Amino acid sequence: MDAQDVQRNSELSEAIVEIVRSIKYERNFDKASQIVIEKNISMTSIVERTLRLQMFEVAKLCDAVLAKK
């Protein structure tokens, strides 16, 4: 793993933390979906990197992303 991969993983982790925070504490699926679109994050990446979101929340996030595209 080179420095570029480490940087990319760090940025992805920070974005996913922000997504989880937006959903869990702010209940703001629009903000979370905007982050997903801007950072081009797959739902698989989100599910693989966090256990904090319930499947219902992931489904609502998917709906919000699809509505914005």
Can you tell me about this structure?
The protein has 69 residues and is mainly α. It has one domain. The protein is built from four helices and no strands. Helix 1 runs antiparallel to helix 2 and helix 2 crosses helix 4. The longest helix is centred in the N-terminal third of the chain and has 22 residues. The radius of gyration is 12 Å and the shape is globular. The chain starts with a helix and ends with a helix. 13% of the residues are buried. The model has no long low-confidence stretch (mean pLDDT 95).
Write the layout of secondary structure elements.
Blueprint: H1 3-24, H2 29-39, H3 43-49, H4 55-68
Short structural summary:
With 69 residues, the chain is an all-alpha fold.
Which structural class fits the helix and strand makeup?
mainly alpha
Helical amount:
over 70%
Rounded to the nearest angstrom, the radius of gyration is 12 Å
Number of domains: 1
Low-confidence stretches: none
Shape: globular
Number of beta-strand segments:
0
The secondary-structure element order is HHHH
Question: Kindly state the mean pLDDT as a whole number?
Answer: 95
Q: What is the oligomer described by this structure?
A: single chain
Distance between the termini: 33 Å
**Largest sheet composition:** none
**Proportion in β-strands:** under 5%
Instruction: Determine the number of helices (DSSP H or I, runs of at least 4 residues).
Output: 4
